[in-house]
Every structure is written in C-alpha cells, then in structure tokens.
Design brief:
Blueprint (H helix, E strand, L loop, with lengths): L1 E9 L3 H13 L5 E4 L27 H6 L8 E4 L4 E5 L4 E4 L4 E9 L3 E3 L10 E2 L3 H12 L4 E4 L3 H12 L4 E4 L12 H14 L2 E3 L4 E7 L2 E6 L2 E7 L1 E4 L3 E3 L2 H5 L8 E2 L11 E3 L4 E5 L4 E3 L4 H15 L11 E6 L2 E7 L8 E3 L8 E7 L2 E8 L4 H11 L5 H8 L2
Parallel strand pairs: 1-2, 1-6, 2-3, 6-18, 8-15, 9-10, 9-15, 10-11, 17-19
Antiparallel strand pairs: 4-5, 5-6, 7-16, 12-13, 13-14, 19-20, 21-22, 22-25, 23-24, 24-25
Bound molecules: flavin-adenine dinucleotide (FAD).
Length: about 400
C-alpha cells in the first residue's frame, strides 16, 4: 500500500530538522514524514567531538542524546527512525523504504548528508567518526582504558584530540601534514594549534600518511606509506573527510556532480524534489562558483530555506559560508570560501591563547576571513559582507577588536 503525505524528508540530520521547521514557517498543519536511517532522532552533531566530552560523565545514553536532541517531533513531523530510503521515483514523487513501505509526497527533500571517507581496515573496529553511536563507542573504549589513535589532521581529529587530551585520556594524533590543520590554516596558526594540543597532553605524530589498519580489535596497528607505526592501539578513530551521500539521487537519474546539483531554490533537476545540507552542490553567485560545503550553519540555513520553499516560500539560498570549530580551548571561525596562497593580511598571536586573524581578498572583495580566538566576531563581519562584499580592511580589523 502507498501512503501519501505532503512533505517527505529523507535524512535524520540537522538539515532534516531545519527543513521541518522551514515547512512550518509556511504551513502549520501539512503532513510531514521524516525517514532516518539512524536509530535516534535528529540531533546536533558538533557536540559529538566537543561539548559532550566536557561534562562530568562521558557520552552515554540517555543523557548524551537529551543534551543534543533537536526535538523535531515537537514541530509536528512523524519521524521513522531506523528506516532507509532505497529507491526514489522522481516522476511519481514516490520513495520505497528498506521496510517495503511506499510513500508518495507532494514535495520530497533529500537531506542525506555525507559519509566518512574510509581506508582498508582488517580489524573491523575502526570508528569512522560521524554519529552518536560512534561517539558512544569511543566513550566505552576510553572507559575501558584504551589508548586512542586518532587518524587525520582535520577538524574532527583536532577537536577529538583536544577533547580527549583535556580529560587525561591518552591519545596520539597521526596525520601527513607538518602540523594539524596545516592544509587549511596558514602555517603559523597550525603550529600554534600543535602547541595547544601538545600542552593538553596529546601526542602529535605529524608526517605520516596512513594507508590501512592492521591487527585485531583492541590491538590495532597502523600502516603508513613508510611501514607499520608502533606500538599498537586499543582503539582507532579516523577523521579523513567526507563524501556526499548522493546515491539515491544518482540512481534516480538526478543531476549529480560530487554532490546533488541544485539551483538557488534548492530544487534538484527533478521538479518537486529538493535537496539541502552536506549533500548538495549549489550556486554561490557572490563568489562566482558552485560550492559543496559541510558545516552546521549551511545545514541549518539550507535546510530551513528548502523546507520553506517546499511549502511555497520564495527565498533564495545565497549564503556567505561560515564555519566554527573549538579545539582544546581555542575557537576558530571562518567566513567566506577557500582561498589559495598567502593571506593579504595576517596577525598571528604570540601564543595559542591569544587572538589573531588572516584575511584573503580577490579583486578587492573579501574572499575568506579566519578568526582565531575571538568568538562571535566572525558572524558580525559576515553581516557586514551581506551589504558590502568589499569592506575596507581597516573596518574589518576594527570590528574584530583584537
Ligand atoms: C563530529 C562532528 C563535528 C562537527 N562539528 C562541526 C562544527 O564544529 N562546526 C560546523 O560548522 N560543522 C561541524 N560539523 C559538520 C556538520 O555537523 C554537518 O555539516 C551537518 O551535520 C550536516 O548535516 P546534514 O543533515 O546535511 O547531514 P548528516 O548529518 O550527514 O545527516 C544525514 C542523515 O541522513 C541519513 N540518511 C542518509 N541516507 C539516507 C537514506 N537513504 N535513507 C534514510 N536516511 C538516510 C543519515 O543516516 C543521517 O541521519 C561536524 C560534524 C561532525 C560529524
């Protein structure tokens, strides 16, 4: 039997929750079904590597979920957890689930997010860190006293290294670059980050490109392009970046290009099928390019706008990207889009706890701003950019009030 609803949202992340709320801004009563493969309702993901490790107790049910639950059902959505959409028929606006249900809708949203990149793992025990379940498994492992190998020098690796080390949990962070986040930050900042993680007690092992995980669960060995790294670890956690979960769209014949392609209305190449969040490639006219980004702010905004458009609103998605991270007591924020080369202006603090910034311009316009340890200032500058894409550098620095 086929069930019919007005709005069908596929995905159980922050984008899906934001979309439910977006629908409700236009349509207080329309029927909404949300399908999520996860067995828990939508919740905030950023605390999985940060806030949840700061409380007295380690992450464990039910207190961890209670702290981050988005309470999506309160907005009047029916949430089917543990249910995966396996087939999309864009012509009929119909979806088949892995439980054999068929659901037809007036509008469908794909908010399927992204999945972690992986490496060969003969132990079957590596945590490709993404979900609350991964977070709980990590907490269970460290409760048992396991020494942790954190593989990856990106945000997830750094945040977890800071969070675990601050609790006195033995942790080695292994990555190919010369310092954590060195592929993203100007080197002096990356070295300050290394100092901070080191001072918290994390052991940094730069210069190692991991290729595989060997050994057995509880006694993992790490293979690199130069041989096996010693000793062995009780637990390995990987943060190696993500790839968009676009297969449902791809198999349905929708346009995909390293992400589901959407227009400024967040509609895919199939009329009536929208997409938002980590999984989309969208036009960013302010920056003259197509983007795919994986940040909380993007999940919230694109989700909300997609939801409201499905219910008849006309707002366009025209973001100025914003990302934040908290690493061992340091706050990092970025506004804008990636920019290559040296920054046009830079102020590096003398110690990790100080304040700093770096700023990149392109044809007179502010392209990227990095703010070090001045929480809350980057969003102000983003607001400024909405009206003036080329603010004078003096004005930006003044707003940073360093
Ligand atoms: C540990 C961690 C920390 C982070 N910290 C920060 C931070 O500090 N700052 C920041 O800006 N960003 C951060 N991010 C990134 C941010 O959380 C993501 O960009 C955001 O969660 C993306 O939301 P999403 O809903 O688009 O995708 P996802 O969170 O990936 O959710 C997708 C959902 O869809 C479900 N799904 C997929 N396919 C199907 C299907 N076929 N059927 C049913 N369900 C399906 C998945 O199970 C999942 O529930 C962090 C991410 C992680 C993992």
């Amino acid at each position: 039997m086929t069930e019919t609803v007005q709005y069908l949202i596929i995905g159980g992340g922050m984008t899906a929750d934001a979309a439910v709320r977006g629908v409700r801004t236009q349509d207080p009563d329309g029927s909404i079904v949300l399908l999520s493969e996860e067995d828990v309702p939508p919740h905030d993901r950023p605390p999985l590597s940060k806030g949840l490790w700061q409380g007295e107790e380690l992450p464990a049910p039910p207190h961890d979920l209670e702290a981050i639950d988005r309470r999506t059902a309160d907005a009047g959505a029916r949430i089917l957890t543990g249910t995966r959409a396996v087939e999309l028929d864009p012509g009929r606006l119909e979806v088949l689930t892995d439980r054999g249900h068929r659901i037809r809708a007036d509008r469908i949203l794909l908010a399927t997010g992204s999945r972690p990149r992986t490496l060969p793992d003969e132990t079957g025990s590596v945590l490709w860190f993404r979900t609350l379940q991964d977070c709980r498994r990590l907490a269970a492992g460290v409760r048992d006293g396991a020494r942790v190998a954190l593989v990856g020098g990106g945000f997830i690796g750094c945040e977890l290294a800071g969070s675990l080390a601050a609790r006195g949990i033995p942790v080695d962070q292994i990555f190919p670059e010369e310092a954590p986040l060195a592929d993203r930050l100007p080197l002096p900042f990356a070295h300050l980050l290394a100092d901070q993680l080191d001072s918290l007690g994390a052991t940094l092992r730069p210069g190692h490109a991991v290729t595989a995980f060997r050994g057995t669960p509880g006694a993992l060995r790490i293979e690199t392009d130069e041989g096996i790294l010693g000793p062995s670890w009780g637990l390995a956690v990987a943060g190696l970046g993500v790839i968009p979960r676009q297969e449902l769209a791809e198999e349905a014949g929708l346009e995909v290009r390293d992400g589901i392609v959407v227009n400024e209305a967040l509609e895919t190449s199939a009329p009536g099928v929208f997409a938002a969040g980590d999984v989309i490639r969208f036009p960013a006219p302010r920056f003259g390019e197509q983007l795919r980004i994986e940040h909380e702010d993007h999940a919230n905004d694109s989700g909300r706008i997609a939801g409201s458009r499905m219910a008849g609103a006309t707002e366009r998605y025209d973001p100025i990207p914003y990302v934040y991270s908290g690493i061992g007591g340091i706050t990092l924020e970025e506004v804008g889009v990636p920019a290559g080369g040296d920054p046009d202006e830079i102020l590096v603090p003398t110690e990790a706890g100080g304040r700093g910034f770096a700023l990149w311009q392109s044809e007179g316009r502010l392209r990227r701003l990095l703010v070090w340890n001045r929480p809350g200032r980057a969003p102000r500058i983003r607001r400024l950019l909405r009206d003036d894409p080329a603010p004078p550098t003096d004005q930006v620095v003044e707003l940073l009030a360093l």
